[in-house]
Description:
MITD1_N; MIT_dom_sf; MITD1 protein; elongated; single chain
Amino acid sequence: xxxxxxxxxxxxxLASRFQESLVCYQEGIDLLLQVxxxxxxxAKKHRYRKKISEYMTRAEDIKKHIEKxxxxxxxxxxxxxxxxxxxxxxxKLFQEYLTETVSEVxxxxxxxxxxxxxxxxxLYNFLRFCEMIVKGPCKxxxxxxxxxYDEGGGRSQQVSGLEEIKESLRSYxxxxxxxxxxxxxxxxxxxxNGWMIKIGRGLDYFKKPRGRFSIGYCDLDLRPCHExxxxxxxxxxxxxx
Length: 241
């Protein structure tokens, strides 16, 4: 398993997919270290340790390269969420980038509205996102939401729901600034520390739960996902900010 993981790390490294290759290097090194502990043959141990040292050196080089890209504003990480995959709650995607310096958040998503099925109310997705923000460790003071009006008879419920979220956030010292646009199409989330996250499906990448009492109804980490792509950038000069 260690050899296969390290082989994959090298392939990703050669393809310049450095973030993914770093994860594979780290996992492969851990597996190889376990093999060394279980090996009694000193000659084999020596060979394994030599390879581990080489892989660790390369992993450190990649870490420095990624850090430099972040500092230069050239960082780009892509996550592919497969159909029916689990383990992709909002905390898993966003918390790494919600550092203590974040005080302002921009959310652009045309579909923050009331869905016909209560179990797929997209307002709840936005509420869960806001709950994550409130839990920290960032000290967000303002969340800017740009979305579109619900079509048909759902507009009043949409506005009422957003106003309720706004009032609830106020009790936590967070201001929700709501704006509507009839031409918005792109979906992206930005933090004022320079991070930008673009999700193909916006915040609505979770599948409808099987029932109100099924696993995954409350815990989004256990909820199957729709296939989508997440692109994460870091730039010191995000024009929209």
